[in-house]
Amino acid sequence: MKLAILLQCHKNPKQINMLIQTLKHPDIDIYVHVDQKSNIKDDIMKNKQVFILPDELRVDVQWGKFSQVEASLNLMEYASRKKAYDFYWICSGQDFPIKKVDEIVRFFETHPQNCFRFWESKNFQGIENNLDKRNTIYYPLWILGNQMPRRILKRLWIELTGGYYKTFKLFRRRYSYKLQSYFGSSWFAVTQETWLWMKTYLENHPQMIQYYKNCNCPDESFFHTLVMASPYAHQMTDYLHYIDFPKGSNSPRILQSEDYGDMIASKYLMARKFDLNSQPDVIKKLAAYCTCSDD
Q: Which residues pair with 130 in a beta bridge?
């Protein structure tokens, strides 16, 4: 079994290097996408199992826009050209393992399935909700983003088009591809077979990429929609991340030492979000735990 861990990074190279060192294993290769805005590329460790995406594949990743999807596609494309892997696992530079690397490898060896977390939307509950609204109307690029003026404009646009739970017919987009939309976490793992199916589908249906460029938070729908349309939709298990997302927040909480016990006891393999600058102790504790010998 060969696993490619695909990291999206933009800051804290020391923390990224700790993550890479903790994941060292003969069956794991690591690919790193450094945000185009970031200058940390030269500070990230490199070896025969760590690959940094070249500058021409680096993307200016912006919150709520298609750029994060593009970064994930570039990571999977680049890794699959280097080598045929059994799994491609999209993670962040602010993640950290909460299981020993041998346990992570054993999990993938014994679970030959795609790992996704899905959220309740029309396709699950039969009623259109605020998730579906992300795809049903056209979002001009200038209102997408997390800055307060853009958030206000986006909220006004949503209300004008019918609100979060309804879309007036005048504003409802016509899908340029014939797939039902699904939604979930942007951190996932796919098998080689699933990735090759996705790649072929997108090559034959480039209009799907164009459509998603004007969706809101497309990284939390694009790959979920693809995998549910694939022949591998039934080969699914839950995603692999421990995340504490406070209600009403746009970002997960920074994990602390007080979370250590819950993380270790959980079923998950990886956790996020961590910050070496503000909460170094929990990362050091996890690094010691994940690299200690069972002997």
A: none
Output the CA torsion sign for 117, 122, 126, 127: positive
Beta bridge partner(s), residue 6: 31, 90
3-state secondary structure 66-99: CHHHHHHHHHHHHHHHHCCCCEEEEEECCEEECC
Contact 129, 164 (CB under 8 A): yes
Instruction: For residue 108, give every residue at least 6 positions away whose Cβ sits within 8 Å of its Cβ, in sequence order, or none.
Output: 1, 3, 86, 87, 189
Query: Which distant-in-sequence residues (6+ apart) come within 8 Å of 277 by Cβ?
Result: 12
Paired with 72 in beta bridges are none
Q: Among residues 150, 134, 152, which one has the least CA distance to residue 142?
A: 150
Walk along the chain (295 residues) and give the pLDDT tens digit of each residue: 999 999 999 999 999 999 999 999 999 999 999 999 999 999 999 999 999 999 999 999 999 999 999 999 999 999 999 999 999 999 999 999 999 999 999 999 999 999 999 988 877 777 788 999 999 999 999 999 989 999 999 999 999 999 999 999 999 998 766 788 999 999 999 999 999 999 999 999 999 999 999 999 999 999 999 999 999 999 999 999 999 988 877 789 999 999 999 999 999 999 999 999 999 999 999 999 998 766 5
Amino acid, res. 131: L
For residue 9, which phi and psi values (nearest 5 degrees)? -130, 155
